[in-house]
Amino acid sequence: MPPPVDSPTAPPRGHRVRQTIAQLRERILGGEWPVGGRIPTEPQLVAALGVGRNTVREAVRALVHAGVLECRQGSGTYVVSTDELAPVVARRLTDDRMAEVVEVRRAFEVEAARLAALRRTPDDLAALDGALAAREAAWRGGRVDEFVEADAALHVAVVAAAHNGMLAELYASVGAALRSTVAQSMGDALEPERYVDHSRLVEAIRDGDPHRAAIEAGAFLEPPPGA
């Protein structure tokens, strides 16, 4: 018979906690427990995962500390993020660090555009065309919040076309920061002088020109003179 959970002959406690954290993460990333939803109670997790209450408690506490879960008194524990980096970035995002955010965006987006020009597929090009059209429609609609989301979606489509999983994961972690920089640059209204054309970026990717794609991606993220 297998040793009882949390018995002296079971795997070391730290190992069990790490395994339990991995199992919880897997269920969150798999969509079984979506963002905004409540995870099962502690007794239910004990039964489902086959570990002791203390192991479950430590694993949940670790994910709370990481910003993935949130305990709400009298209500339960909820999923607040699928990405441990996103809450860290959000906590560090302040107005006086926006210049750093733009520099990080530029590093990610220039390389993503270069790779996208080399690796894009017909499906990627269709997604880019759709995202570009949605961005243009959002601009014409005149709502800042809708334009910010549409602009972010286009940049995400460029990153997806790069077909680099790690780059996509890291870029997703700065999603909130990305939207903040766009919203800050737009202000309270979509003024004509703030419009930035992204069609040349999409065309460079379509043409398979990595050098031109990188230049186009970096052009609208250049720091102002004297920065």
Just name the CATH architecture of the largest domain.
Up-down Bundle
Could you tell me how far the N terminus lies from the C terminus, measured between alpha carbons in angstroms? 68 Å
Sheet having the most strands: 2 strands, antiparallel
Mean of all residue-level pLDDT scores? 83
Low-confidence stretches: 1-9
CATH superfamily caption of the largest domain? GntR ligand-binding domain-like
Shape: elongated
Tally of strands? 2
Provide the CATH top-level class of the largest domain. Answer: Mainly Alpha
Side by side, the strands of the main sheet go: 1-2
Q: Helix amount, in percent?
A: 55-70%
Domain unit count:
2
Give the radius of gyration. Answer: 22 Å
The name CATH uses for the topology of the largest domain is Four Helix Bundle (Hemerythrin (Met), subunit A)
Count of alpha and pi helical runs? 11
Strand content: under 5%
Order of helices and strands: HHHEEHHHHHHHH
User: Which structural class do the helices and strands define?
Assistant: mainly alpha
Organism: Micromonospora citrea
Protein name: Transcriptional regulator, GntR family
Pfam family, one: FCD
InterPro entries: GntR_C (IPR011711), TF_FadR/GntR_C (IPR008920), Tscrpt_reg_HTH_GntR (IPR000524), WH-like_DNA-bd_sf (IPR036388), WH_DNA-bd_sf (IPR036390)
